[in-house]
Amino acid sequence: MDLTVNEDNLQFICDKLLENEGAANKELDLILSRHCHVEAKLQNISKVLPNLIVIRAEGEKFKDMIAHTNKLAENVSAKVRQLDLARSRVCECQNRVHDILDLQLCSQGVATALHNEDYEQGAAHVHRYLAMDQQLLEQTAEDVSGDHTSITSSLLTLQQAAQQLRAVVTHKFDEAVKSEDLASVERFFKIFPLLGMHTEGLNKFCQYLCTKLQETAQKNLKTALDVKSSDKRAPVIYADTMTLLFEGIARLVEVHQPIIETYYGPGRLLTTIMVLQKECDRQIKKIILEFMRHRNISAKIQMMNEYLRKQSTEKADPKDLDLLLGEITIMHARAELYIRFLRRRINNDLEISTTDEAQRKTLLSEFETFATNSELARGMQELLSAYLSLERYFLEESVNKAVGMDTLDQAQQTSSMLDDVFFIVQKCIRRVISSWSIDGICAVVNMACGILEGEFATRLRNRLRQGYPAGYLDLAQAYNALQSSIQQGRLQTSDTELARLMFLAYLNNADVSIEYVESLSKSLAEEIDAVFPNMQNRDRGKIESCLTGLKGVTSTLRAVVDYGLEQLRVSAVKPRITPWVDAFQSVNHHINEDELLRYETDEPFVQTLVMNLEGLLQAFKSSLTTSNYDALIGILTAEVTARLEKVVLRSSFNRAGGLILDKEIRSLASYLAAATSWSVRDKFARLTQIATVLSVEKVEELADYCGADAIAWRLTPAEVYRIAGLRTDLGPEDIKRLKL
């Protein structure tokens, strides 16, 4: 406290000193109160001090012991390393000794084996010699001065024996091949890898297999050429020949792959197959050449092209191409099956022999490139090109023939060409699916789409363009006359009646064709997925694009159906609907109470109209498909409502007449709704609202019906004013004052 002492602050200073003194006393009391505790702690520390000295001494001893142990461990480790080095040198020495002993044994044994023509034993000695480190043997010979000559002599003997054995085994193998001694061929084939001749042995054995394959293929081809045309296998004899070739190669692979893996190791199958495939290419080329020549493929294609270009009148019968097309698809399918077999075998072999994924993919890619550039692939492309030319002609001519031979059975709703055309289309597409060619499938599907959208749809449209003949004043009259003729058993269809039936049949053809195309598209997608379960994304995109073309066919056929229905509306519906509905104007719509009661039980206009409509619909019900019949009812409903609306707007009413109109419209709507599975209520919406306007009791009620809150109100305010003006019992001034 730094204060100047004077009389004024003397008391303050005294108080401050007293306060400080009190605080100091409290601190002293606290320290004194802890005196006993501190004393006890000090006593405990004094007791522990001797133990600390002992612990320190023990720690020093423990440190020295650890250091000594560490030194011993390092010494032991050094000894162990020396022992391990010595052991490895001993093992190396033992191996050298064993190699020297084996070298001498092999040197002696190989000479004996060669003398006894025991080539397997001699090859085993050479194989043991080749497994030795020759540089190490030469170094050993230099280190062991006493045995230098012996070791060098043994090495020289084995080197000469190896060369001699290689020459002998090669010669013996060639002799066995010439003499067709299969047992000797396999015997010496197994010796090649023992002599370090893996590549040479495999190539020679594959060449031997190619020779046998060539002989068998030529024999099969000669047999095929000698087959008589009356033989039941004659139409597919070249496909059989090609199949025998593929089966022969597959059999060679299955039989000899285990031998190759056992004696040459896994991973050799790709080389084997590539050698065999070259011979396969040569034989395939011969088979396809003979096929093209004996089946006159080029001449047939040329004749078809000239006929299609109108350069010649000579044409081939599509039936004659049916078996030929089937044979080509079999040939292509067998080739695809053969390639799949090779791909699967090579993939399995590489999975066993190669752990590197990148290397395995590279080898598989090498095989795919080899297969793509092979003569087999080029031959299949040539066959596919010929097939597509023949298939196009077959499809077009068969469809034209089916269309030209079209007949109508009056008991059927469609003509004969519908089932015939789609049978042909389905047959061609399923045939090309059996070829297992994605490109072929796409081409034929596109052909089918072009024909259905072109020739077939054009034929339907041209027939419908002629219109529906209306020979009778009333279709009910025509229907009754036809039924009467059938019952009397003397049906004689006139040209007009036949034209009517053909028009309806072609309209049905177009409608049923839509169902056929949709069903065809669905079934094709399922069949293609079954044939190509592991299809690549690129190929799947091609197929989906082609199947999308069938949707275009559906759109074209729907347009044909719409065109035919429009023709039917113009020819058969509208001319009859107009006079029937116009009869509404001849009815008095200013009705008193007595007439209103009579109308409750008797509705002459709507009853007559329904009877006429029933007669019209009955004339078509049995002749049209369900879809076309429903569409006809929709057209008829639209015509009736449109014409009736015009007639109503040219009439005048009182409230009772409006009520009768409302009832008639409801009766008519109920009849038409019951006649079809489609909804017709929407087409009657305007008429129903017109009847509502004409049947109100007061003008003010119209505001509730057609105000801003009205739901689905079809009439505009101007139309409401006009319709309300048809009521003779409503005041014009009241109508004008109405706010809508």
TrEMBL record:
Residue stretches spanning the membrane: none
Q: What is its main location?
A: Golgi
Topology of this chain in the membrane: Peripheral membrane protein
Keyword terms: Golgi apparatus, Membrane, Protein transport, Transport
Q: Please name the InterPro entries in this protein's record.
A: COG4, COG4_C, COG4_M, COG4_N
Q: Name one GO biological process term.
A: Golgi organization
* Record keyword Zinc-finger present: no
COG4 transport protein middle alpha-helical bundle domain segment(s):
158-465
One Gene Ontology cellular component annotation held by this UniProt entry: Golgi transport complex
Cellular compartment(s): Golgi apparatus membrane
Q: Name one Pfam family in it.
A: COG4_m
**Key word Metal-binding present:** no
The family note in this entry says: Belongs to the COG4 family.
Please give the name of this protein. Answer: Conserved oligomeric Golgi complex subunit 4
Species this chain originates from: Cephus cinctus (Wheat stem sawfly)
